[in-house]
Specification:
mainly alpha, 319 residues, 14 helices, globular
């Protein structure tokens, strides 16, 4: 179990790194960076939801009441989301008159954040994850969770537009990945990652799926996403054997992944504003490196600082 959880945490660490890299895609980015961005976006958020579903399976407590379960999820997800949203909206209100701001806000955004990711579109993930947890609690048996997985597949392909409120539209197309993670644990599919030759094949499988299906329409998007998930899981199994890298870098990143997710765009925005002031367009690699590091290292440092204090732990949703 510990080996499996460590591999999953490594996958989460890789995913948050990819999320930060994917959120740096300026207009002056070279062609190779656009390709990197396209590759990342083909599976990175499905991977996050898949990992969340798998963690849910591993930590499932059948005796826990609905109020207790949801209360813990609210403390873990909703409280940090609301605090972060309020901080981001405040910063944007203070700076958007003097600098270019992605997703501009207004005073009404302080109200809107209770039903939409008004501080930044990337926060849709929090709403989707909360809804997934509300739904999955009612699936008490393996059979019911399997049926829910089949329902998630049907929802993905039903040509009906759900409303944006509470990110229901995103939930409709993302539920399939969360439930796939649950099924991965439910049917002990981690055994397919035990053989190094098979893990190498998963990397090739993703390359093939991306090449043939990435631009083939929404109906084939899950094929590329699931192939990418398998590829990252296989890489995680290999990295699991590198004890120093795992303990010093990857596991701390995994532990702070939610804090990094919430704050990375804010600190990346500060770094991008700094480069914009310098009017340097030719040093793309330097700018990309510094902006991405700001999006990872600063929130990681913030997480490690806040978790030392009781109020800080509440702010970032950790015990």
């Amino acid at each position: 179990m510990k080996q499996r959880i460590d591999s999953l945490d490594i996958a989460k660490a890789l995913c948050i790194i990819l999320v930060v890299i994917g959120h740096f895609n300026p207009d002056n980015a070279p062609v190779f960076w656009k390709w990197v961005n396209t590759i990342i976006y083909s599976f990175h958020m499905p991977l996050f939801l898949f990992a969340s579903g798998l963690v849910y399976h591993y930590t499932l407590n059948k005796k826990q009441s609905f109020t207790s379960f949801i209360g813990k999820k609210l403390k873990r997800l909703a409280v940090p989301y609301l605090i972060t949203s309020a901080i981001i909206i405040t910063i944007k209100l203070a700076s958007q008159g003097n600098a270019q701001v992605d997703n501009p806000v207004s005073l009404y955004s302080f109200i809107e954040m209770f039903y939409l990711p008004s501080a930044g579109y990337f926060l849709w993930f929090v709403w989707v994850l909360m809804l997934m947890f509300v739904i999955i609690w009612f699936a008490k048996s393996k059979t019911s969770r399997t049926i829910l997985f089949l329902i998630s597949i049907a929802l993905y392909y039903i040509p009906v537009n759900f409303p944006e409120i509470f990110c229901l539209r995103q939930s409709k197309v993302m539920m399939i990945y969360f439930m796939a993670g649950v099924m991965f644990g439910e049917y002990n599919l981690a055994t397919i990652l035990k053989h190094s030759l098979a893990n190498t094949a998963y990397l090739l499988l993703y390359a093939i799926a991306f090449f043939f299906f990435n631009n083939s329409g929404d109906s084939l998007v899950p094929i590329v996403a699931f192939a990418g998930i398998l590829a990252i899981l296989s890489i995680s199994k290999w990295l699991d054997s590198l004890s120093s890298l795992k303990s010093k870098v990857l596991l701390p990143l995994a532990a702070a992944s939610y804090t990094i997710y919430l704050f990375h765009t804010t600190f990346m925005g500060f770094a991008k504003a700094f480069f914009a002031k310098l009017h340097i367009n030719s040093l793309f690699i330097l700018e990309a490196t510094i902006v991405i590091l700001c999006g990872i290292v600063v929130p990681l440092t913030l997480h490690q600082t806040l978790k030392r204090h009781r109020m800080g732990r509440k702010m970032i949703g950790v015990k």
